[in-house]
Amino acid sequence: MAYRPLYLRPHDVCVALQLVISPKSSFRSLAERVGLSLGEAHNSVKRLQSAHLVLPHRREVNRRSLVEFILNGVPYAFPGELGAETLGVPTAHSGPAFRDKIAAADIIVWPSSRGSERGVSLVPLCADAPTMPEKNPRLYRWLTAIDVLRVGRAREKALARELLEPEIRGSGPDLFDSARA
């Protein structure tokens, strides 16, 4: 049998972040919190282990590597592409951590009939992202910051890095708390 490499998928970023938030989660809980099937949550952890973002044979996140990947790799591996105007859930600089810090004429949203705002569409890293404001607020805030890295300008990206890095490393206070709307 030939070796088949495992390639990361965009929703694997969501799984890794959820493992940072709740490291002792069962696969069932992980799947529910991120909006994946149980099998896909398991496959996602396998891919994250293959990429050395999660330690082998357990579900412990290699935080240093994850921070490096999110800050430097995600914008290139999973670039954001802005689309047509639609109804959706605010993300990127329109999200809760940034809306008071970044003045922008446009609103960026994840397309969703659940959304409350009209704006330029951006496909999220995980399909269930539009449910995150109610279901998983911390993951929602982190995903909006990652979207800033995917589509933002230099100043916006610097702010996103400043907010994300200590949070994912677990080395600082929840800086997003002060940015909640």
Helix content: 40-55%
Task: Please provide the ordered H/E string of secondary-structure elements.
Answer: HHHHEEEHHH
Instruction: Give the count of helical stretches.
Output: 7
Number of domains: 2
Structural class, from secondary structure content? mainly alpha
Main sheet overview? 3 strands, mixed
Question: Can you walk through the features of this model?
Answer:
It is a single chain. The protein has helices at residues 10-21, 27-34, 38-50, 63-77, 132-135, 137-151, 154-169; strands at residues 82-90, 108-111, 117-122. It folds into 2 domains: 10-77, Arc Repressor Mutant, subunit A, CATH 1.10.10; 82-179, no CATH class. It has 7 helices and 3 strands; from the N terminus they run H-H-H-H-E-E-E-H-H-H. Strands 1, 2 and 3 form a 3-stranded mixed beta sheet that branches. The chain is 46% helix and 10% strand. It is mostly helical.
List the helices and strands and how they pair.
Layout: H1 10-21, H2 27-34, H3 38-50, H4 63-77, E1 82-90, E2 108-111, E3 117-122, H5 132-135, H6 137-151, H7 154-169
Parallel strand pairs: 2-3
Antiparallel strand pairs: 1-2, 1-3
Helix pairs in contact: 1-2, 1-3, 1-4, 1-6, 2-3, 4-6, 4-7, 6-7
Give a brief description.
With 181 residues, this protein is mainly α.
What brief labels describe this structure?
181 residues, mainly alpha, Arc Repressor Mutant, subunit A, 2 domains, three-stranded mixed beta sheet, 7 helices, 10% strand, globular, disordered C terminus
